[in-house]
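1st attempt posting a full record on here, be nice pls
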Amino acid sequence: MEKTINAIVDGGKATSGPPLGPALGPMGINAGQVVAKINEATKDFAGMKVPVRVIVDTEKKSFRVEVGTPPTAELVKKEAGIEKGAGNREAPAGNLSLEQLVKIAKSKKNSLGKDVKATLKEVCGTCVSLGMTVDGKNPKDVMREISEGKHDSLLKG
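the predicted structure (as C-alpha cells):
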C-alpha cells in the first residue's frame, strides 16, 4: 500500500523535523535517507520553497521522491536577484528581460497555461504582483504585446 506525503521544503535544506519526520516515522522509513534524497533533488533550487511529494510503499518499506516546480514568484525573484517584491509600488522591485521570462515559462511544469504563450502571460502577471518591470515596461503592456503576437519568435523551440 502506498501513502503520499506532500510538503514544501527549502531547496537543498530539508530537515527530518516537521513536516517530514513526524509523517515518516510511523511508516518505518528512515527519515534521514528521505531528507538526503530530497536535498539532492532540490539543490538547484537553493533559497526557494519547493513542493515535494514522498511516495512510501509501506509494505516494502521503500520510497520515491517527486520534486515539483517552485512557485512562479520564487523563480521570478531568483532570476531578478531580489528577495521580495516592491511593497510601495513607487519604484520597481526589479527588471527582467522578456528572454528571462520565456526561460521561466518554459521551466514551469505545473502551469495552468495550455501552452508556453499562456504560461508566459502568467509569469508576466506574477511580475505585476511583485511590482517589477519587463524590459523597462509595465508587465501589463508586455502581456498585451504577447497576446498580439509581437513576441512569438521568442516562443519557438
